[in-house]
UniProtKB/TrEMBL annotation:
Localization annotation: Cytoplasm
Keywords: Aminoacyl-tRNA synthetase, ATP-binding, Cytoplasm, Ligase, Metal-binding, Nucleotide-binding, Protein biosynthesis, RNA-binding, tRNA-binding, Zinc
Lineage, uppermost ranks: Archaea, Thermoproteota, Thermoprotei, Sulfolobales, Sulfolobaceae
Residue ranges of domain Alanyl-transfer RNA synthetases family profile in the record: 60-748
Record keyword Zinc present: yes
SUPFAM superfamilies: Class II aaRS and biotin synthetases (SSF55681), Putative anticodon-binding domain of alanyl-tRNA synthetase (AlaRS) (SSF101353), ThrRS/AlaRS common domain (SSF55186), Translation proteins (SSF50447)
Organism this protein belongs to: Acidianus hospitalis (strain W1)
Free-text comment on this protein's domains from its UniProt entry: Consists of three domains; the N-terminal catalytic domain, the editing domain and the C-terminal C-Ala domain. The editing domain removes incorrectly charged amino acids, while the C-Ala domain, along with tRNA(Ala), serves as a bridge to cooperatively bring together the editing and aminoacylation centers thus stimulating deacylation of misacylated tRNAs.
Gene for this chain: alaS
Name this protein carries in UniProt: Alanine--tRNA ligase
Named cofactor requirement(s): Zn(2+)
Length: 902
C-alpha cells in the first residue's frame, strides 16, 4: 500500500523541531532533531555504535528495565495488567504468544469485547521461532524468547484515548527522561505494519543502530486485499525489554545483558573455554551487517572482526561459532522453561511439536559442542535464575525437569533410527528439502545427522541453514489441536435455519425442565424450528437431546437428534413434519438419557480439575465426549498414568461428589472472566461471544461451558474410571462412567467373573484361589512340555537327511508332529556353518531357510514357476506346493538349487 506521508507528519514533530529526512543508505524517511544526521540510525545502515557511547548508562537488568517501563506508563495513566501465558490458549488460530497485541486479539481488537483497561500497559513474554537458526549468530538481535513491553490504547468512535502524537511523545519522554538518551540521538523511522488481518503505519524508534521500540497505529482491516478503515483504532506498541537492558549495560553481547553471570556458568557447564570479550564486543558492533538470509554476510562479518582485531579469520570463525552455540543453548533453555512452565506438553502436533523441536535442537547443539551434561541441569539453572521474574518456573519445577529428562531419553532412543532412516532416503534418489522436513516431522532426527549418514553411502545433500525456521513456520499457525465437530446438518438446512431469530433456550433457564409448549416457527422436511425449547443441541462434546414432539391433534414425532445453527436450535425428527407455522406443540425430552448426559458432563469437569491438581497445571483438555453410556476426556500429559495415579484420581473425584459442592452457571463479560479466572476457562474451546457462560464447581473448577449440568456434585452419584490409554504422543485418554452407569459397569464385571468361575468350575468367591492354582498347574505343564519339546527336537534333528546338491549341504527335516519347533530347528541347522539349506515339508507349506552366505530369492522364483505360491526373500522362503508328493517337492527344490544357487 502506498502510504500518504501525512500519516507520519505529526503535530508533535512539527512543534518539537523534528525534521523529516531520508536515509542515504536505505532511502527510508525518518524524523530527527539532528539536522546533520544523514542515516536512519538503524542496521544495516549503521553499526551498533551505542556500544561505544556513554549515553544512557544506567546498567539496568531485564527485571529493572521491565519495572522502569511499566512504572513510567503507569505514572502516565496506564493500568498495569498481568501478562498472559506464552501459549495462546485464548486463540484458535495461533499456538504461541508472539506479541503483546495477541493478548487482545481477536475479541478486543474486533470491538466485540472491552479491554481490561484503557489505556493499559503490559510486559508480555513472547516466543517466536521463525528466526531460531539465527540465534547466537547475531549476538542478541535474534532471540526465541523475549519480553515485549506494550502500552495500548483502544480508540472507539465514542471514546478517544490517544493516538499518534501522544504515542510518540510518550516514547520520546521515556527514552530521554528515563533512559537519559539525548533527544538528538532518537530517530523515528517511518514504516508500515501488517499482521492478523490488520494494518497501519508505524515508527521504528532507533538509537545507535539498535531498534528499541516499534510504535504501530492499527487503523485498517485487510478485506480481500483492500485496506478498509477500522472503527476501532488501536495504539499497538512494542518496546524491547531485553534490548533496553542491553542498551543501558553495553555488554559484549545481548546475552550478557539478559543472563549476566549465567553466561559464564553455561560456558563452564558446557565444558567450553570462555571467548575473549573484546572479540565478542567487536563482533556485536558489526553484527548489524549480518543478513541471516544471506550466509555470505556471516563470512564478511567474520573477516571484518578479524581485520579489526588483527587476527586470522579462521581463528575468529572458530571462536565466534563456538560462542554462538553456547548462546543458542542459553536462549533455547530459557524458552523451553517458559513453554513448559506455562503448560506445554511436548508431542508431535500443535504447540507440543514446537516445544519438542526446540528441545531437540538444544540437545543437538550440545552434542556438537561435545558436552555430556544433561539438558535438565541447564534448565535448572534457568529456573533458579528467573524464579523471581517468572514464579511459575519454581511452582512447576518438578514437572519441567521431569519432562526435559523424559524428552532427552526419547531423543536418544530416536537417534538409534538414524541408519535405517538414512538408508530408506538413500533408495529414493533425489533427496529434497521437503524430504528432510518430512523426515524430521516423522522421526524427529536432525537433518545434519541424516546428511552425515548419507555421506557414508556416497550421497551428498545440502541442509538449509534455516532448516528449523522452515519447520517452525509450517507448524506455528496450524489449527489448534482438538476435535473438529463434523457438520451434522446439510447446507440447505443450515441456510433454512439462518432465517430465524435465536431460539429461547429453556434448558439454560431450568436444566431440569423435561417438557414445554412451543410455537412452530419453521418446518423443512424433517427439521423443525420452534420459538423455544428445552431440547439441548449437540455441542461441547455433549450429544444432542432426543424425545418427542406432539401436536394438539395427537400426532407424535420422535426427536432423534438436536443440532444448532448459530443460536437457532434445530430439532431433527424421525419423519417429515406436517406442521403449520404458528401451531403450538408439546415437547418432552428423554429425561433418563438427558440426566445421564448431565451427570457425565459434570463428571468431566470434576475429573479435569482433579487431573490438573494431581498431575500438574500442564494438563489441558485435548478432547471430550459425553454419551449416556459413558464419557471420555483426553488430556495433555507426557507419560502414561500409573495405577496409583488412576486410583488417586478416582478418590479425588469421588471426594468432591461426596462433598456435595454446588454447581453454578455464571454469565460474565469474557475479558472480566479471563482476568478473574485466567485462560484455563477455555479448556473446552474458545467461544466467540462477548459474554460467556461459565460453569463453577465451588472451590474446585471454573470453566467456560454451554452444556447441561447437575446443580450439585452429589447428583453425579459416583465416578469409576474404566479405561486409561495413551492415544497419541502427549495425549492420555480417560474413559469413565457416572451415576447409575457405575452399577451397569459393575454388573458387566460381575457377569464376567461369574462366567470365569463357571469355566473354572468354582464359585465367584473362590475364583481368585482357583485361578492361582490353575496358573501354577499351567506353569508346571509348560515346563514339562518344554522338556518334551527339547527331547523331541533332538530326536527330529537326528533324523535329518543330508546330501550335497551343487556344492550346497541340503538338510531335509522329517515329518514333524509338533510344527511349533520348525522355525527353531531351521534356524539351528542353518547356523551350523556355510552353504547350508534346510527344508521342512509340512501339511500345507514348505519352509526353506539358508545360512547367511546364501540368498533364496532365485530359488523362490524357480519354485513359483513350478506352480508354487508364496515366497520370501533373503534367507527364508515359505511356499505352498499343492498337489505334489513329498518326493516331487524335494526333486523340485534340488533342481532349483542346481539352477539358481551359484
Amino acid at each position: 500500500m502506498k502510504v500518504d506521508e501525512n500519516e507520519y507528519r505529526l503535530k508533535f514533530f512539527l512543534e518539537n523541531h523534528y525534521v523529516r529526512k531520508q536515509c542515504i543508505s536505505c532511502k527510508t524517511p525518518f524524523w530527527t532533531t539532528d539536522e546533520n544526521r544523514d542515516n536512519c540510525a538503524d542496521i544495516p545502515c549503521t553499526d551498533y555504535t551505542f556500544l561505544d557511547s556513554n549515553i544512557g548508562k544506567l546498567n539496568l537488568s531485564v527485571s529493572e528495565a521491565r519495572k522502569k517501563f511499566l512504572e513510567f506508563f503507569h505514572k502516565h495513566g496506564h493500568t498495569i495488567i498481568p501478562p498472559k501465558p506464552v501459549l495462546a490458549r485464548w486463540r484458535d488460530d495461533l499456538y504461541l504468544t508472539i506479541a503483546s497485541i495477541v493478548d487482545f486479539q481477536p475479541h478486543v481488537t474486533s470491538g466485540m469485547v472491552q479491554p481490561p483497561a484503557n489505556p493499559l500497559v503490559v510486559s508480555q513474554p513472547c516466543i517466536r521461532l521463525e528466526d531460531v537458526d539465527n540465534v547466537g549468530i547475531t549476538f542478541g538481535r535474534h532471540l526465541t524468547a523475549f519480553e515485549m513491553g506494550g502500552h495500548h490504547a483502544f480508540n472507539y468512535p465514542d471514546k478517544f484515548v490517544y493516538w499518534k502524537d501522544e504515542t510518540v511523545r510518550l516514547a520520546k519522554e521515556f527514552f530521554t527522561e528515563e533512559l537519559k538518551i539525548p533527544e538528538e540521538l532518537l530517530t523515528f523511522k517511518e514504516s508500515w505494519w501488517e499482521g492478523g488481518g490488520n494494518a497501519g503505519p508505524s515508527f521504528e524508534v532507533t538509537v545507535g543502530g539498535l531498534e528499541l521500540a516499534t510504535l504501530v497505529f492499527m487503523q485498517y482491516q485487510i478485506v480481500n486485499g483492500e485496506y478498509v478503515p477500522l472503527k476501532l483504532k488501536i495504539v499497538d506498541t512494542g518496546y524491547g525489554i531485553e534490548r533496553i537492558a542491553w542498551f543501558t549495560q553495553k555488554t559484549p553481547t545481548a546475552f550478557h545483558a539478559i543472563y549476566g553471570n549465567l553466561v559464564y556458568t553455561f560456558f563452564k557447564k558446557l565444558d567450553q573455554p570462555y571467548v575473549d570479550e573484546e572479540m565478542l564486543k567487536t563482533a556485536a558492533r558489526f553484527a548489524g551487517r549480518i543478513d541471516p538470509d544471506n550466509p555470505l554476510t556471516i563470512t564478511h562479518h567474520r573477516e571484518m572482526v578479524a581485520k579489526a582485531l588483527g587476527l586470522k579469520k579462521e581463528e575468529v570463525e572458530k571462536e565466534l561459532t563456538r560462542a554462538a552455540r553456547v548462546f543458542q543453548v542459553l536462549d533455547h533453555t530459557k524458552t523451553i522453561t517458559l513453554m513448559l512452565a506455562d503448560g506445554l506438553v511436548p508431542s508431535n502436533s500443535g504447540e507440543g511439536y514446537l516445544g519438542r523441536l526446540l528441545i531437540r535442537r538444544a540437545l543437538r547443539v550440545m552434542k556438537i559442542l561435545g558436552s555430556d551434561i544433561r539438558l535438565k541441569d541447564l534448565v535448572l539453572e534457568q529456573i533458579e535464575f528467573w524464579k523471581e521474574d517468572f514464579p511459575q518456573f519454581l511452582k512447576n519445577k518438578d514437572y519441567i525437569l521431569d519432562v526435559v529428562e523424559y524428552e532427552q531419553e526419547k531423543y536418544e532412543e530416536t537417534l538409534q533410527k538414524v541408519p535405517s532412516v538414512a538408508s530408506a532416503l538413500a533408495k529414493k534418489g533425489n533427496i529434497t528439502i521437503e524430504d528432510l522436513i518430512k523426515t524430521y516431522d516423522t522421526n524427529g532426527i536432525p537433518p545434519d545427522l541424516i546428511a552425515e549418514e548419507l555421506k557414508k553411502k556416497g550421497i551428498d545433500i545440502s541442509v538449509p541453514f534455516n532448516f528449523y525456521a522452515l519447520v517452525a513456520r509450517r507448524h506455528q499457525s496450524a489449527p489448534i489441536k482438538g476435535e473438529k465437530e463434523k457438520a451434522k446438518l446439510t447446507p440447505d438446512v443450515v441456510e433454512f435455519a439462518k432465517k430465524f431469530e435465536p431460539t429461547d433456550k429453556l434448558y439454560y433457564k431450568d436444566q431440569y425442565m423435561r417438557s414445554f409448549n412451543g410455537k412452530v416457527l419453521g418446518v423443512y422436511k424433517n427439521f423443525l424450528i420452534l420459538d423455544k425449547t428445552t431440547f439441548y443441541p449437540e455441542g461441547g462434546g455433549q450429544l444432542g437431546d432426543s424425545g418427542i414432539i406432539k401436536t394438539k391433534s395427537g400426532e407424535e414425532y420422535h426427536v432423534i437428534d438436536t443440532q444448532k445453527v448459530s443460536d437457532v436450535v434445530v430439532h431433527v425428527l424421525d419423519k417429515e413434519a406436517k406442521l403449520n407455522v404458528g401451531e403450538e406443540v408439546y415437547g418432552e425430552i428423554d429425561w433418563q438419557r438427558r440426566y445421564r448426559l448431565m451427570r457425565h458432563h459434570t463428571a468431566t469437569h470434576v475429573i479435569l480439575a482433579a487431573a490438573k491438581k494431581l498431575l500438574g497445571e500442564h494438563v489441558w483438555q485435548a478432547g471430550a465426549e459425553k454419551t449416556p453410556e459413558k464419557a471420555r476426556l483426553d488430556i495433555t500429559h507426557y507419560k502414561m498414568l500409573t495405577p496409583e495415579e488412576i486410583k488417586k484420581l478416582e478418590d479425588m473425584t469421588n471426594y468432591v461428589i461426596n462433598d456435595r459442592r454446588p454447581v453454578t452457571a455464571i454469565e460474565m463479560d469474557r475479558m472480566k472472566a479471563e482476568m478473574t479466572f485466567g485462560v484455563s476457562i477455555y479448556e473446552g474451546g474458545v467461544v466467540n461471544k462477548p459474554t460467556i457462560r461459565l460453569l463453577e464447581i465451588k472451590d474446585w473448577d471454573v470453566e467456560s461451558c454451554g452444556g447441561t449440568h447437575v446443580s450439585n456434585t452429589s447428583e453425579i452419584g459416583a465416578i469409576k474410571i474404566i479405561n486409561v490409554e495413551k492415544i497419541q504422543d502427549g495425549v492420555i485418554r480417560l474413559e469413565y462412567v457416572a451415576g447409575d452407569m457405575v452399577s451397569n459397569y459393575a454388573r458387566g464385571i460381575e457377569d464376567k467373573i461369574n462366567k470365569i468361575s463357571e469355566d473354572l468350575e468354582t464359585s465367584p468367591e473362590q475364583v481368585e484361589i482357583r485361578l492361582k492354582r490353575t496358573l501354577e498347574e499351567m506353569k508346571e505343564i509348560k515346563e514339562t512340555l518344554s522338556m518334551y519339546r527339547n527331547w523331541y527336537s533332538s530326536y527330529v534333528e537326528s533324523k535329518v537327511i543330508e546330501e550335497k546338491v551343487n556344492g550346497i549341504n541340503l538338510k531335509i527335516l522329517p515329518e514333524i508332529i509338533d510344527e511349533d519347533i520348525v522355525k527353531d530347528l531351521l534356524r539351528k541347522l542353518t547356523s551350523q556353518g556355510s552353504k547350508i539349506i534346510a527344508v521342512f515339508i509340512g501339511k500345507k507349506t514348505v519352509d526353506i531357510a539358508s545360512s547367511k552366505d546364501l540368498k533364496l530369492d532365485e530359488l523362490a522364483s524357480f519354485l513359483r514357476n513350478k506352480g508354487g505360491k508364496g515366497g520370501g526373500k533373503g534367507t527364508y522362503v515359505s511356499m505352498m506346493l499343492e498337489g505334489k508328493s513329498r518326493e516331487e517337492i524335494i526333486n523340485d527344490i534340488k533342481e532349483g538349487i542346481e539352477r539358481s544357487i551359484h
